Amino acid sequence: MSTLISHLQSIVGTPHVLTEGDLSAYEQDWRRRIHGKALAVVRPGSTEEVAQVVKACAAAGVSIVPQGGNTGMVEGSVPDESGQQVVLSLTRMNAVRKIDAANLTVTVEAGVVLQSLQQIAAEAGFLYPLSLAAEGSCTIGGNLGTNAGGTAVLRYGNTRELCLGLEVVTAQGEIWNGLSGLRKDNTGYDLRDLYIGSEGTLGVITAATLKLFPQPAAKLTAFAAVPSMEAAVELLGLAQRELSAGLTGFEVMNQFSLQLTDQHFPNLRIPFTADHPWCVLLENSDNESEAHARERFDHVMELALEQGLVLDAVIAESVAQSKNLWHIRESIPLAQAQEGLNIKHDISIPVSNIPRFVAETDALIAAATPGVRMVDFGHLGDGNLHYNVQAPLGDDGEAFLKREEKRINTIVYEQLMKHGGSISAEHGVGSLKVHSLPKYKSPVALQLMRQIKQALDPQGIMNPGRVLEA
Amino acid sequence: MSTLISHLQSIVGTPHVLTEGDLSAYEQDWRRRIHGKALAVVRPGSTEEVAQVVKACAAAGVSIVPQGGNTGMVEGSVPDESGQQVVLSLTRMNAVRKIDAANLTVTVEAGVVLQSLQQIAAEAGFLYPLSLAAEGSCTIGGNLGTNAGGTAVLRYGNTRELCLGLEVVTAQGEIWNGLSGLRKDNTGYDLRDLYIGSEGTLGVITAATLKLFPQPAAKLTAFAAVPSMEAAVELLGLAQRELSAGLTGFEVMNQFSLQLTDQHFPNLRIPFTADHPWCVLLENSDNESEAHARERFDHVMELALEQGLVLDAVIAESVAQSKNLWHIRESIPLAQAQEGLNIKHDISIPVSNIPRFVAETDALIAAATPGVRMVDFGHLGDGNLHYNVQAPLGDDGEAFLKREEKRINTIVYEQLMKHGGSISAEHGVGSLKVHSLPKYKSPVALQLMRQIKQALDPQGIMNPGRVLEA
Which residues of chain B are within 8 Å of residue A466 when distances are taken between CB atoms? Predict the structure, then answer.
């Protein structure tokens, strides 16, 4: 092993091979559920260095855990406890290689932080639409590795749909330069989409060419109370018809999630929390003007009120007010954390099945564990719910998790199978869900995945035990 | 072989195994460049039958050529001349399994004709946006197998981006049911996008769940003469800024392509052909009204005239007039065919590089083969040109092709490499470009493709010799 360490030092330089001191930023996952031990944390500065690091590890038979901002939710980017895995941190590779305005593309390295890219795009007059809670520290490489979703998928798609080309170091340490800025390229299998979302198990994404969009003239939000989840789904359809691609966000929040938020963040001034079972937040990105955006929202809300889909509504009077409304939605996970540990689910269901799914599953969970409090919120526009279960009032969170997590997961996962859903919508599999996947994924699909893993990483050194059981 | 034939007859029924009579509809490619000979044409009526057919062929070691409407441009869906390949025609599998209005999805079988799906969607109040010249006979299975592009990619993406889930029969005859209607599902490798665009070389796509969109309130076109390709690219950027997702089409046509069209179809009444080097066609899909669509177009054209990007422009006064303008653009390939054989290229280039690419390549070709006439047209909005070379006036088309095709292909392909382009934008590889690919594609990418092919079709029975050399 010491030979490997010296070899790695010779490739990336001694200061960039970390073996001592507090490495918990690299070894512990974001949710602080596991703390591994790395053989070394290696921080290459170029694609060529990444390739050499992979070759060195492959020759030594040492496995590699690629890591970006280490903000993942599924324990996929930290080493195991063996002390035998190399963490390959991409954060030093953070160059913006090229902005091509006429082609509406930007080429960046894997270590660029999402928020930096949003800002760089904005300064050049464009929008990079990916937006998610960890944007201040997650990296583009991590976004690609996990096919990150977020709040704008309804309009712009997941990270996969935002990417036109990749640069990848294969499991053999070869460099594939597929940094195409092409919107049409039918010259063979879609390697790009195969690496995207493979969570570092097939190779290392080192750079990408991503889509940019014109900045909308105005982004406004509306906040509305709806009488039921059925009404929320109908309102979504109405807003899609009337606003078309202007509808760039459609979030849903149940009463309890807003109550919690109000309780822990009383300064947020939530428009209405009282007696409404659900609220929704709509975002309209208008290519004309703020006035036009508001006029279109007025029109949608008028129709919705007439049809009984909305009980009460607030349309933001300004961009600042829009941000405040978003802030309410974004504060739910924080309020929830303040309230104590809870059982989290990142799930998706065909939008048409969501009302039935939620009604049935709420009832099943309430019957199984009386007194639990459901924190239901998420991206209704793309069918993704964060369907979380908070311990009964006064119950100890940790004990609750220990006692109930498996049982409640099983209820939720079985319900997902019944309603055509997925046990991981936007967070991925990692090691957290790797043992659940065989129960809930088609055996044929799993077999195909194993064949691909075997074909592209026959040595099994790329992030082993993640996505697929080792 | 006769044992296999009887086996196939027992699976799909004797009338659906064709071995005699004129099978040229299945054996000859759309462009009539090659005419193969099938062992049999098998027409299964269900996914289960497809699976059994694949198993039977695999057991007999007989290779399979999946086929939809057989309208492909790259000789990918007809058998070779050996008489030893089974054509698997999916056209009998043409059921619409489900429309899910609230989820904005439709699930259809592979044999549904594109135009039928467009109509079915429209009758349900939705838009299925894929649109291309062969839409009256091409099938959804073929669209998926080749990742078809067309005229609306600028806004809606290629077929890959329109698909949420697949049902596939693997090369081993297993059925993978991945017919998800989910917009977020991060539970493993992207098998869907791997099969899409694999041209039947990894398995058989039998059904798909596809995205639907709300019907726009109005679709209008504008037709404009521009002073240069540079101006066309600038106008594209302007239109994207002003119309955002409303801009659903942006086509370009050079002077000669319009002259040819005018000559062979004088009734089309082309707005201006005379002295303008390039014309463009813009489509605006408006979610408010026809009046609003026109108002937005007026605004764009006013800005463009002010900035000197446009010399003259016509904005359609009605939907009928919009269709007429589209008809001009769509008649170019027909006019070209009337004029005689020509050397076709379906290429893509980053939009920013198109002006230089065209100027340089036009000059190189003119120098190499004096008198040739360039028919340049295509989907400028997504960087895809149909960059075709017509024989000099009076020259015999067939002799010209024989003499010049290879040499001109080489000029074009080398130029594409220089400018970051692709030798196949939307048509695929098939057998037409399979021997060119190794010269113009990254060897690392090709090696990865071979490893995937070997992993998923180790027997090599799925459409051998297409995409990858056999």
Answer: none
Q: Which residue has the higher pLDDT, B79 or A275?
A: B79
Structure confidence at residue A272 (pLDDT): 81
Closest by Cβ to A214, choosing from B241, B437, B446: B241
DSSP A29-95: -TTSS-B--EEEEE--SSHHHHHHHHHHHHHHT--EEEESS---SSS-SS--TTS-EEEEE-TT---
Pairing outcome for strands A203-211 and B175-178: unpaired
Q: Looking at beta carbons, which residues of chain A come within 8 Å of B423?
A: 187
**How is chain B split among helix, strand and coil, in percent rounded to 5?**
40, 25, 35
**Could you say which residues of chain B have pLDDT below 70?**
273-274
On the CB side of A11, how many CA atoms lie within 13 Å of its CA?
24
Phi and psi at residue A209, in whole multiples of 5°?
-105, 120
pLDDT of residue B296: 96
Residue A126, φ and ψ in degrees, nearest 5: -125, 170
Mean pLDDT, chain B, rounded, equals 96
Q: Contact B177/A420, CB-based, under 8 Å?
A: no
Give the pLDDT score at B49.
Answer: 98
All residues of chain A having their beta carbon less than 8 Å from the beta carbon of residue B243 are 287
A455 contact residues in B (CB cutoff 8 A)? 451-452, 454-455
CB contact under 8 A, B184 and A382: yes
Is pLDDT above 80 for A273?
no
Interface with chain B: mutation pick from A107, A146, A185, A284, highest number of B CBs within 10 Å: A185
CA A47 to chain centre: 25
| Interface confidence: ipTM more than 0.95 | yes
Question: Which of A97, A186, A286, A297 is most worth mutating to test chain B (most B CB atoms within 10 A of its CB)?
Answer: A186
pLDDT tens by residue, A373-396: 999 999 999 999 999 999 999 899
Mean predicted confidence (pLDDT) in A105-122: 98
Considering only the beta carbons, identify the residue of B102, B184, B384 that sits closest to A426: B184
Judge: B186–A105 Cβ closer than 8 Å, yes or no: no
| Residue type at A122 in one-letter notation | A
Chain A hits for B124, CB-CB cut-off 8 Å, are none
Say which of B178, B183, B216 has its CB closest to residue A383: B183
Q: Residue A363's pLDDT band (boundaries 50, 70, 90)? A: very high
Q: For position B264, what pLDDT does the model report?
A: 95
| Helix (H), strand (E) at residue A434 | none
Is B67:B77 a contact under the CB 8 Å cutoff? yes
Query: Which chain A positions have a beta carbon within 8 Å of B455's beta carbon?
Result: 451-452, 454-455
Residue A119, pLDDT above cutoff 70: yes
For chain A, list the domains and their CATH numbers: 2-89 (3.30.43.10), 96-214 (3.30.465.10), 218-333 (3.30.70.2190)
Contact status, residue B284 vs residue B293, Cβ threshold 8 Å:
yes
pLDDT above 90 (res A449): yes
Residue A379: predicted pLDDT: 97
Q: Which residues of A touch B237 (CB under 8 A)?
A: 101-102
Q: Please give, rounded to a whole number of angstroms, the shortest distance from the CA of B360 to a CA of chain A.
A: 19
Q: What is the arithmetic mean of pLDDT over A425-449?
A: 97
* B217: closest CA of chain A, how far (Å): 9
What is the mean pLDDT of the segment spanning A288-307? Answer: 96
Q: Which residue has the tokens 């065909």?
A: A350
Q: Which of A180, A442, A455 sits opposite B454 (nearest CB)?
A: A455
pLDDT over 70 at A202, yes or no: yes
Kindly indicate the confidence band of residue A1, based on its pLDDT and cuts at 50, 70 and 90: confident
Tokens of A123: 């300064």
Q: Percent of chain A scored above 70 by pLDDT? A: 100
Tell if the CB–CB gap between A161 and B158 is shorter than 8 Å.
no
